[in-house]
Every structure is written in structure tokens, then in C-alpha cells.
Amino acid sequence: MEIKIVNKSQHPLPQYETAHAAGMDLRASITEEIILKPLQRLLIPTGLYIELPIGFEAQIRPRSGLAFKYGISIVNAPGTIDADYRGELKVLLVNLSDTDFTINDGDRVAQMVVAKHETVIWQPVDELTETARGEGGYGHTGKK
């Protein structure tokens, strides 16, 4: 699929790093390094603006390597970019570690997955179809 994109950064467009990857890396587009303190959260600009087709969203997700090695994640993971949003893509990073984390211009800070979604039309009813699970919620199947 083709998606219109404006790139105001000095970095290449997001791309898939492997042939079957679902996500494309997003890079920080900043003029000076950012120090993300422990438990601090900041919006990191990317310099990218996209026009998604109706019926699609872009999900902004943490990069597994940053999460594992440095405790860097996304506060609202996954973040959702709607088809009618035209502002700059920004990544809401959080430092869940106990040490400072430095972000430099061009660093890969998140990944973006474009996905199709459905629009729900609610059908009010008085009761729902019974299932074997029923109302079993959190932890109802046990630990093992």
C-alpha cells in the first residue's frame, strides 16, 4: 500500500529492517541530545507527517532492544495515529530504568505498524450468548 508522507527530518523514511518485519523504525529528529531521566517521560519528535487511508491506523510501539537493554518504553503503548491526524508523529517515551538514557538525533526510538481496523456499529441487546468461559476474568484460569 502507498501512504503519503512529509519528511521534515534529515533522516531516511521509515523502512522495514527485514523482509518480513511488521514494524518500521522511527528516528528522533532533534537539534540537541535529550537526557531522559529515570521515570521521566518526554515527547520525542520524528519530523514525519503522514496521511493514512481511511480504515487504517498507525500503531507506535516500543523497540524491544531499547526496552530490554535500557528500560525504555512508550507510556501509551501502543500509541495510535488515526487516519484524520495530520500533525507531526511524536513518540511518548518513558525511562523505566534507574539510569539516565541519552537520545541523539537520528536514534531509532520506536517502531510503527500500519494496520487495518474496523468501525464498530453497536447492536444493543438484553443478553449475550453464553460461553464456557462466561464471566471469568483476570486470573480465572489459574497460574499453571
Automatic annotation (TrEMBL):
Entry's EC annotation:
3.6.1.23
- Catalytic reactions of this protein: dUTP + H2O = dUMP + diphosphate + H(+)
Q: Where does substrate bind?
A: R63, S64, G65, N76, T80, I81, D82
SUPFAM superfamilies named in the record: dUTPase-like (SSF51283)
Sorted alphabetically, the Gene Ontology BP terms of this entry are: dUMP biosynthetic process; dUTP catabolic process
Co-factor requirement: Mg(2+)
Q: Which Pfam families did the record assign?
A: dUTPase
- State whether keyword Magnesium applies: yes
Which InterPro entries does the UniProt entry name for this protein?
dUTPase (IPR008181), dUTPase-like (IPR029054), dUTPase-like_sf (IPR036157), dUTPase_trimeric (IPR033704)
Q: Which segments constitute the dUTPase-like domain?
A: 12-142
Q: Note whether Magnesium occurs among the keywords.
A: yes
GO MF annotation: an example:
dUTP diphosphatase activity
Q: What class of enzyme is it?
A: hydrolase
Pathway entry: Pyrimidine metabolism; dUMP biosynthesis; dUMP from dCTP (dUTP route): step 2/2
Entry keywords, A to Z: Hydrolase, Magnesium, Metal-binding, Nucleotide metabolism
Q: What does this protein do?
A: This enzyme is involved in nucleotide metabolism: it produces dUMP, the immediate precursor of thymidine nucleotides and it decreases the intracellular concentration of dUTP so that uracil cannot be incorporated into DNA.
Q: Which family does it belong to?
A: Belongs to the dUTPase family.
Q: What is this protein called?
A: Deoxyuridine 5'-triphosphate nucleotidohydrolase
